């Protein structure tokens, strides 16, 4: 069956001329963006209940833009002035660049990984005497604590924000040819919002092994998968599929 409509379970990209824009233009398909999950901040009193005192830390490990936003939000709510001596360990260049929203980059000690948390670990290991805080969501990939414990650093996890399932009731009677998912939480949101969901002719596109596992466990048929050597991005995988069925 031909593809005319796609629903991406994420916010719309803010950049101009995104890969989705090119896909829309080239294949003449309609693409809607609706976040199936969203992030909510945890209150400062909840952070205190975790026995976290920001004065006790000399370094912050930042894995995402959300972790940056919510660390500085909590610091502000606790009236904690982040010292200039604080060290920042950012998982990627994108996270480090985003940090400039809150600090003067050239005046701070910022250490940047390449892309994955695994690639950040050698940098953290070089500073074993620091006291690290990891601001995170309520869901944390198991590999993160495993890697930090493995190098024997003094670190503490703080749950500063949580992932919440969005209300998708507006979509109850709306149908799309393809649904696109990037996380197990997105799959969970689909099944909780629509417990009677029947896939039928709807194609499911998933990104990443954990999302594949969640979709399969939910009894969904996976039609499009990324990344693969041939299609490293979701838009490339969608492009390939649409080209083959819309002949």
UniProtKB/TrEMBL annotation:
GO MF annotations in UniProt: uroporphyrinogen-III synthase activity
Superkingdom: Bacteria
BP terms from Gene Ontology: uroporphyrinogen III biosynthetic process
InterPro entries assigned: 4pyrrol_syn_uPrphyn_synt_sf, 4pyrrol_synth_uPrphyn_synth, UROS/Hem4
Annotated ranges, domain Tetrapyrrole biosynthesis uroporphyrinogen III synthase: 19-235
GO cellular component: cytosol
PANTHER family listed in its UniProt record: UROPORPHYRINOGEN III SYNTHASE, UROPORPHYRINOGEN-III SYNTHASE
Protein name per UniProt: Uroporphyrinogen-III synthase
Organism: Flagellimonas lutimaris
